[in-house]
Specification:
177 residues; alpha/beta
Length: 177
C-alpha cells in the first residue's frame, strides 16, 4: 500500500499568488526563503521579485532578498548561502532575465545557469524555484515578469514552496526553521 501526498498542485485558481497554473501555495509559516535577483535588467527583476514576494507572503513564509549583477551569478549566490555558517534557508527563488542577442553569449548564460541551478537542486537536495526568464526580446520578458500577466516570479516562488513541502514530507515533517 502506498501513501499519496497531495501538495494541492491542482488546476484550481489561486488568487493569492496569481500563478497561471493555479498552484495553491502550501502553508509555510516557518519557512525561510532566499530570493536571489539578477539586476542586469532591473525593471524585469523587480517585477519578478514582486510576484515572488506576494506568493511567499501568501504562504506565510519569511524571506530575505539579495541582488547579484546577472543571471550567471545566481547559482553561486545560492551555493555561498548553503556554505555559510549560521543563517540557513529552507529554499531559494532564482529571478532574472537573459535576452537573446546577436552572439552566442545568451546560449552560454542561459544553459549554464539552468544547469548550475539543477546541479544544486539535484546534487544538494535544495528546494529551488527557477524564475530566470530566457526570452527573445524585452516584450516577452515584460509579459512574463508582470504580476498581472504571466507572473513567472510568483510561479518560481510557488515551485520553491512546493519543493520545501515535499522535502519536509520526505524528511518526516522536519525542516522549516
Amino acid at each position: 500500500m502506498s501513501a499519496l501526498m497531495d501538495l494541492d498542485c491542482g488546476s484550481s485558481s489561486d488568487a493569492r499568488s496569481g500563478n497561471e497554473k493555479g498552484f495553491k501555495s502550501p502553508n509555510m509559516e516557518n519557512a525561510h526563503i532566499m530570493i536571489v535577483q539578477a539586476t542586469f535588467y532591473e525593471d524585469i527583476g523587480r517585477a519578478l521579485e514582486l510576484g515572488a514576494i506576494a506568493a511567499i507572503e501568501a504562504a506565510g513564509a519569511r524571506f530575505e532578498s539579495f541582488k547579484v549583477p546577472g543571471a550567471f551569478e545566481i547559482p553561486a549566490a545560492i551555493s555561498m548561502a548553503e556554505a555559510a555558517e549560521g543563517q540557513k534557508f529552507d529554499g531559494y527563488v532564482a529571478l532574472g532575465c537573459v535576452i537573446r542577442g546577436e552572439t552566442s553569449h545568451y546560449d552560454y548564460v542561459a544553459g549554464e545557469t539552468a544547469r548550475a541551478l539543477q546541479d544544486l537542486a539535484v546534487g544538494g537536495g535544495l528546494a529551488i524555484g527557477n524564475g530566470i526568464l530566457t526570452v527573445e526580446n524585452m516584450g516577452q520578458a515584460e509579459e512574463r515578469a508582470a504580476v498581472d500577466r504571466r507572473n513567472k516570479g510568483g510561479g518560481a516562488a510557488d515551485a520553491c514552496l512546493a519543493m520545501i513541502a515535499l522535502k519536509n514530507h520526505l524528511n518526516g515533517g522536519q525542516g522549516q526553521g
